[in-house]
Write a structure and sequence with these properties.
This protein is of the alpha/beta class and 307 residues long. The protein has 2 domains: 15-170, Rossmann fold (3-Layer(aba) Sandwich); 184-305, Rossmann fold. It has helices at residues 15-25, 61-69, 103-108, 123-131, 144-158, 161-181, 207-214, 233-239, 255-258, 267-270, 279-282, 289-305, and strands spanning 37-40, 46-49, 56-58, 76-78, 96-97, 100-101, 113-117, 136-139, 188-193, 217-219, 243-246, 274-276. It has a 4-stranded parallel sheet with strand order 4-3-7-8, with helices on both faces. A 4-stranded parallel sheet has the order 10-9-11-12. Strands 1-2 form a two-stranded antiparallel ribbon. It starts with 14 loop residues before the first helix and ends with a helix.
Length: 307
């Protein structure tokens, strides 16, 4: 699916800018993609390609992981900052960050499919790419089924369905087994910290909130209306969770947890229930969420054992 337009960015630079980018792409404003390979993206739009995607731009670390999981890693020609998994992704040219891409660098790489982050990439930049004739496939899995579905849909567009369907099935089956194992687990009140300044958590609708519930946890902020609410220390003290879990600024940085040690009256501190989860395992909607969920569940088991 392609659209046409004359603006190269949100501020509407000269039409000549678009002409030069179109020349790099070898596409006209009326270029369209319609064919046998079609999939519905997470904006409920049908995206169709005349032939399998061969040059894919993944515009978030999670999108990069999902494309590799779909068996199309060798087709990725552009990523953004922090696209560090799998290791091969670090060898792919980066075109900026997920919040601001270098469009000229991206266009020069001539992608025939762009994987956009629905709420993370600048809308005006994705719209510009569509105006230049590039198919943009928006993804943002909001539940476990959405992760496996994203892999399957990307594999369809890349014509790598054997590998993609296999990985999707492994993830789906693994999460189902984990849910069955913890279906009758004793509840543990949990505070999950997703950021430090400002202090932020997640509600029950968030993907991480769904992991908390699956593992038998009771999210002390689960009923808040926002997916990622801002809170303060006083709110955590009032909720008095039995366990505190957090990621951090890096895969091994536990500094966010040490902050809570200044509050010895917290039940989580009294029972030594401060647990670290590497952020890439729990905060990206990718197959590695299964590994992160297993770790999360095991840590709540440790909390139960300390009663």
């Amino acid at each position: 699916m392609a659209t046409s337009g004359q603006k190269c960015g949100a501020d509407g630079p000269a039409i000549a800018c678009c002409a030069s980018l179109l020349a790099l792409l070898g596409l006209g404003a009326d270029a369209a993609h319609a064919g046998a390979l079609c999939a519905i993206d997470d904006r409920d739009r049908e995206v169709c390609l005349e032939q399998p995607a061969e040059r894919i731009a993944a515009l978030s670390p999670g999108a990069t992981e999902l494309v590799f999981a779909a068996g199309a890693g060798e087709k990725v020609v552009a990523v953004v900052a922090y696209s560090d998994y799998p290791p091969e992704a670090q060898e792919v040219p980066s075109v900026g960050s997920h919040t601001r891409m270098d469009l000229e660098a991206l266009v020069t790489l001539s992608p025939d499919l762009v994987i956009g982050w629905m709420t993370g990439n600048p809308p005006e930049q994705l719209e510009t790419l569509e105006a230049l004739g590039m198919p943009v496939f928006y993804i943002e899995p909001r539940d476990f089924a959405g992760v496996s579905s994203a892999i399957e849909r990307l594999a369809r567009l890349a014509d790598t369905r054997d590998e993609g369907d296999r990985i999707a099935a492994e993830f789906r089956d693994g999460m189902a087994a984990l849910a069955e194992r913890y279906a009758d687990a004793e509840p543990v009140s949990v505070f999950y910290q997703v950021w430090d300044e400002p202090l932020m958590t997640i509600n029950d609708e968030h993907l991480i909130g769904q992991v908390v519930s699956m593992c038998g946890g009771v999210n002390v902020f689960g009923e808040l209306s926002r997916l990622v609410p801002r809170i303060d220390d006083e709110s955590v003290l009032a909720a008095d969770p039995e366990a505190i879990l957090a990621g951090g600024m890096g895969e091994e940085n536990r500094d966010w947890l040490t902050h809570w040690e200044q509050y010895p009256s917290l039940t989580a501190i009294e029972r030594d229930n401060l647990y670290f989860v590497p952020p890439s395992l729990i905060q990206r909607p990718t197959p590695r969420l299964l590994e992160g969920s297993r770790l999360f569940c095991e840590q709540l088991d440790h909390a139960r054992d300390k009663r």
